[in-house]
């Protein structure tokens, strides 16, 4: 399954090491569902030849995927995808949104904006910081082919992740950056799911009419010291997702 990797390149001039660049490419393809559970990743020799890198570099990338619980290496078979959910992410939730369709083309994320803002009263209260402190705001739209699915807005305190403005989150996983580059760990989150109508700006990004129904998740994520570290808003097209809840005794 090399088709999904065609056109991807490794940058020898980047500050990121080659093994991590390859890891991030594979990570993105796995968590976005391009490689599904049970799929084989391209073999080590294939990746070595395609990217012109050493086998040691490929193996280091694979080791990270194994560590994150995404891949299992099987003797005589290869590297098999065993999960599309990294073990380092928060995955013990009682509800989630599920796509109503699965054949809308290759998934990707487009960055709409990424810049610093001053925390207003609302954001300062949510993140437990002083008003006017610098926050980094990231807005991205998730697409499948030419179809938009959701708008994601993320707020983090810039001083907590000082180089976040240098990253390209159209290609890089935000979670991978948190966990694997910055070695941050979230331990819990609170979230609210609301049925809302799309504003003109949201409707434009989601390719729907203003006033159309959307599902919105408001999530605050905390570290091991119970400090809120991230505030995320995800606004989903209601015609593309539905809510699933798992109830256990």
Automatic annotation (TrEMBL):
Pfam families the record matches: GntR (PF00392), UTRA (PF07702)
Limits of the HTH gntR-type domain: 16-84
Assigned keywords, A-Z: DNA-binding, Transcription, Transcription regulation
Gene3D superfamilies, alphabetized: Chorismate lyase-like, Winged helix-like DNA-binding domain superfamily/Winged helix DNA-binding domain
InterPro entries named in the record: Bact_HTH_transcr_reg, Chorismate_lyase_/UTRA_dom_sf, Tscrpt_reg_HTH_GntR, UTRA, WH-like_DNA-bd_sf, WH_DNA-bd_sf
Gene Ontology MF: a single term: DNA binding
CDD domains referenced in this protein's UniProt entry, alphabetically: WHTH_GntR
Biological-process GO terms, alphabetical: negative regulation of DNA-templated transcription
Keyword RNA-binding: no
Keyword flag Nuclease: no
PROSITE patterns, sorted: HTH_GNTR
PANTHER family attached to this UniProt entry: MANNOSYL-D-GLYCERATE TRANSPORT/METABOLISM SYSTEM REPRESSOR MNGR-RELATED, MANNOSYL-D-GLYCERATE TRANSPORT_METABOLISM SYSTEM REPRESSOR MNGR-RELATED
Designated name of the protein: UbiC transcription regulator-associated domain protein
Organism, as annotated: Fannyhessea vaginae DSM 15829
Lineage: Bacteria, Bacillati, Actinomycetota, Coriobacteriia, Coriobacteriales
């Amino acid at each position: 399954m090399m088709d999904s990797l065609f056109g991807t390149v490794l940058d020898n001039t980047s500050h990121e090491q080659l093994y991590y660049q390859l890891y991030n490419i594979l990570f993105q393809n796995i968590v976005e569902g391009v490689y599904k559970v049970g799929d084989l990743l391209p073999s080590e020799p294939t990746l070595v030849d395609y990217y012109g890198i050493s086998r040691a570099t490929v193996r280091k990338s694979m080791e990270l995927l194994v560590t994150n619980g995404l891949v299992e290496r099987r003797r005589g078979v290869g590297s098999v995808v065993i999960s599309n959910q990294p073990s380092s992410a928060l995955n013990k939730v009682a509800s989630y949104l599920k796509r109503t369709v699965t054949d809308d083309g290759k998934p990707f994320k487009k960055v709409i904006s990424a810049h610093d803002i001053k925390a207003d009263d609302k954001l300062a209260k949510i993140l437990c910081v002083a008003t006017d402190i610098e926050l980094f705001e990231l807005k991205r739209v998730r697409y499948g082919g030419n179809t938009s699915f959701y708008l994601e807005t993320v707020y983090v305190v810039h001083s907590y992740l000082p180089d976040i403005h240098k990253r390209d989150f159209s290609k890089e996983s935000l979670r991978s950056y948190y966990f694997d580059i910055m070695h941050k760990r979230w331990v819990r989150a609170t979230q609210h799911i609301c049925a809302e109508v799309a504003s003109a700006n949201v409707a434009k990004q989601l390719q729907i009419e203003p006033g159309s129904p959307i599902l919105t998740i408001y999530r605050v994520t905390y570290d091991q010291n119970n400090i809120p570290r991230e505030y995320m808003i995800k606004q989903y097209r209601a015609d593309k997702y539905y809510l699933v809840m798992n109830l256990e005794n």
